[in-house]
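Subject: for your reference before the review

Hello V.,

The reviewers asked for a structural picture of the protein, and I figured it would be easier to keep everything in one thread rather than splitting it across files. Below is the amino acid sequence we used in the manuscript, unchanged from the supplementary table.
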Amino acid sequence: MKILLINPPDSYAKKGSKHYPLGLGYLATKLNQLGENCEILDLATGRISLEDKMVEFKPSLVGISIYSTTLPDVKTVVSSLQSIYKGPLIAGGPHATLFPKEMLLDGFDYVVKGEGEETLPDLIAHLDNPLSVKGIAFKKNSQIIENLDRPKIHNLDEIPYPDRSLFDLDAYKKNILMGARGCTNNCKFCSNWQVSGGGIRKRSPQNVFEELLYLNEKGESKDLFIADDNFGAFRKNKLELCDLIIHSDISIDWAAQMRVDNVDEYLLRKMSDAGCSRVYFGVESGNQKILDDANKKISVPQSKSAIMMAKNAGMCVKVGIIIGLPGSYVQNLDSLNFIKETLPDEVSVHHFVPFPGTEYWNNAQKYGISIPDKSDFGSLYYHTIPKNLNFEYISKKEIQKLFELFNTELKSIGYVGPEDYVPGKRVVITPLTRDR
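And here is what came back from the structure prediction:
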């Protein structure tokens, strides 16, 4: 069967920082190994149109990966398909997992919930009678049926790592690898726990290392992002992975993201010796009460210590700050003071968004959050001040002022915007440049 998996365009994505849609790579690789003919169309690159690909490939089945923020673009893709494609249409990805019934009402025939490496091949084999397929929802005679959930894949080593030739690699700036799935925490502003089913699972160090060898052989190991939600989890395994890299003849330059409560000097130095040149910490706030209320389960001193240790290990340190988490203007202002004290190499400042599936979305009113239209998913985007979002505890004018302060005060002490970056300069990213 000829299968086309589509990554939709994202009208509000940051330009020039994209990496390939790794999840679709896993699915396509698995399907091709099972004898299907599966290709990937990444519309976010803008390098090929939907119409041209459909004419060229002529798929008999189409699947689309969906995030809440790309839903408006997904609806445009579905509308365009109606005149050129008459086969089954499958929805997958985080948004489809959280809202399967809504996806079926929006024109999809099937929804794959959660991980798809086992579910999608099973569905393809039983399209005519999908009642036995765990982990899906579907329409039958205008009736919506939601089957039992499929258990999570516990042995991740059994999943074949993605064939990167499925991607137009010239369209991307970085390579990406995933060594674990899930997260160790359940922050109130993050939907990872709800989408992944909670908990964290890991690949073995040897299995990850073998993928690194594969990438190195293909010339695709430079500018690599190891995209585990928390690289510091399973410390013993990560030390073993670092040793495998150090004692090999491969040379890679990679980045990782970590929780500040899962770092120590020895681990960071091992990572640096193994080629990790950049680390990202989701600090989120410099105010302890905001962190506690968000169930972040870290302390401000831990964040300060993690930044210092990473710098001492010779790494470039990037931190993420969320402006507008439940807390007053003065409490949110502590995040600016935190950055001025710790001076990370790069600061990424985002507007707080209660994404679908999160505690702040499910119980918004309890936290002083108002989302007037919960069906307007496209308005909830953290690169702007969303119109469809109001807070009792802080005004939009105060949020705007905080962003302006981040820009002016950090630039006054040597930070520059991404458009003016040159090596050796610190960077502040406060991307309130889009109207949504």
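For the response letter, the relevant points are probably these. The chain has a mean pLDDT of 91. The first helix runs from residue 22 to 33.

Happy to draft the paragraph if you're swamped.

O.
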